[in-house]
Each structure stands twice: as structure tokens, then as C-alpha cells.
Amino acid sequence: MTKPGYPYTLTLIPMFLLLLYTGCKPGDSSDSLKPEITLEIIDSIAPEREKRREWTGADIQLKKELEYEQYTLDDEYPYQDTVRRFQWEKIKEKIAHLENAVADGGNWGVLSNYKNMNGESPTIKGFVRNEYGRVSDQFGVERYQSAPLYAVENEEELLRYGRDGWLVKILDSDTTEMIRVRGVSFEGEYLVPKRYLKVWGDTISFDKVVAVDVTNQNIALLEKREDVWYILSMNPATTGMHNPPHAQETPTGIFAIQEKKEKMYYVRDGTSQIAGYAPYASRFTNGAYVHGVPVQLPRKSIIEYSPSLGTTPRSHMCVRNASSHSKFIYDRATVKESVVVVID
Prior knowledge:
There is one protein chain. The chain is of the alpha+beta class. It has three helices and 22 strands.
């Protein structure tokens, strides 16, 4: 006969023993029955984005896809008793330099003093007078139409002149009287008075390059699409010649296209009298434009081509090319998206 409550007594004894064993185990606490929780401390500061490796000319992809096909030159072509060429490797190096500056981001600016419109720069210590009788710095940059560049540590110490059209990055506020800049078209950091600086902002991405070769007297327009630079034209050109007191060489370097004129009127040397006009002109530094064949008054109609194109330097500083090709550049190479790269 089973006694009342006996099965329940047998059930309670094992449960009591289990609690006694687990509760008295040395080193345990009441939390030992809870699941283990691991806390991971996450740094609230996001890791710094790895800086992109600086590109060289080898990283630039060129692809020929001509959209302007008149007067087209080959990569290499005969000229008199020699061979001329498009110096693609040099052009790629300049494009790589520009790409690196774009990738770095920041606030873009352009040095500006066309016809001394923002005031003549002060005279630099140790200046020289060049063959044109103009004050120049140790780099050969004239005071006329240039911006003064001062030492970062001493805003009264004028170190050099900056060419009109040179590109810079603005490093500090662009609202102060003296603005700190880093050169893109030149090396170094300087202070420049605000009035000599066009501020273009931080959304600039140059995707058109007008490449001018003063040695081989040719010109090409390139345009970037995705990761490839397409060669859209390859034409003869004529650049500036050294002939004081009026005609000057086209300066080498990287310049922003700053403005355009459907007709750029020019004056007779040494006078203020208008002598004619050049069609489809894109200005990049000082009074230097990429433009079509000059038209001398009283003629009014555009001249398409000149047999002197692609021969020897003969302009006052400008880059002459066929008028229809100049229009192609005028229409395609927009301000704030385009540069002129002049190589030798």
C-alpha cells in the first residue's frame, strides 16, 4: 500500500541535492547560471579614409576618338627635314598632376590680374628687367598682370609673382584680406591678397584639357569620361614668339580657361587702334587666348585656315589654330571645367 505523499517526497529530494551542489560550488556566484555576455567597445571616431596613391602619367588612359576630323595630324608627322609628334607622355604627366589635385578635394581658386585690373603688384626685391623692360621675379614671371605671392610666416615679405590663370587650392577662409593658398600650377604655399583671387569653390572637377605644344606647334583637345581621357582632336597650331617689345612666347604650365569671346578684338602694336579680331577666343593667361585665324580690318568675314599653322611661333602670345577647330574648343571647353596645358 502506497503512503499518501510518497511520490512527491522522492521528487523533492533530487531537486534539493541539485540546488545544494550548484549553489555551493567554490568560486561560483548567483550569476553563474546566466548566459555569458561579451561587450565590445567600438570607437566612435570613424577611421580616416586611406589616401589615394598619387597617380603618374602611367595611370592615365588615353583613347583616340576624334570628333573633329579636319586638318588632323598623325601621332608623328614630317615637318621639313625633321619629325614632329604629339608628346602624349608629357601630356599624361600633366593630366596626372591635375587628377591628383582634383582627388585631394578642397576649395579651388584662380590667380587673376588681367591687364592689372586688380592693381599692379608691388616691386619684388632683387627684381630684374627683362628684354621687354618689365619687372620680373627670379622665375621669369613678370609683375605686369601677375598676382603678388607673400610668405606664409610674414605677409609683408613678397616672394614671387603668380601668373594670371594659375590654379591654386585655398587652405584657409576665403573671406580674409590675405588668403593662404597652395599652388596647383606651381609649387609651394603662399599668402595672396583676396582681390587677386577668383574663388571657384569645392565642386570643381576638370574634365577637358586643351594640350598645346610650343616645340612641335600642335594642339589637341582631350575629354575625360569615367576613367578614360579621350583624344577628340589633333591639329596644327601656332604659338607666341619672342620678339620684343610686343610679341612674347606662350608660357608653359597649367592654366584655367577663364573667359570666352566670340570675337576677340586686338590693337595695332604700340597703339590703341583696333586692327582686327580673332574668332572663338578662349583666354587662359594674361592676354593669351586659344583662337582662330586673325582677321584684319577692313575684312569682316572669318578666315578658316592659314598655311602658317603648325610651322613656327609667330603670334603675340596666343595659340592660333584653324577657326573651325577653335570653335570646337570654344564650344566644348567650358569655363570652370577646362584647363590649357602648355608643354615644350
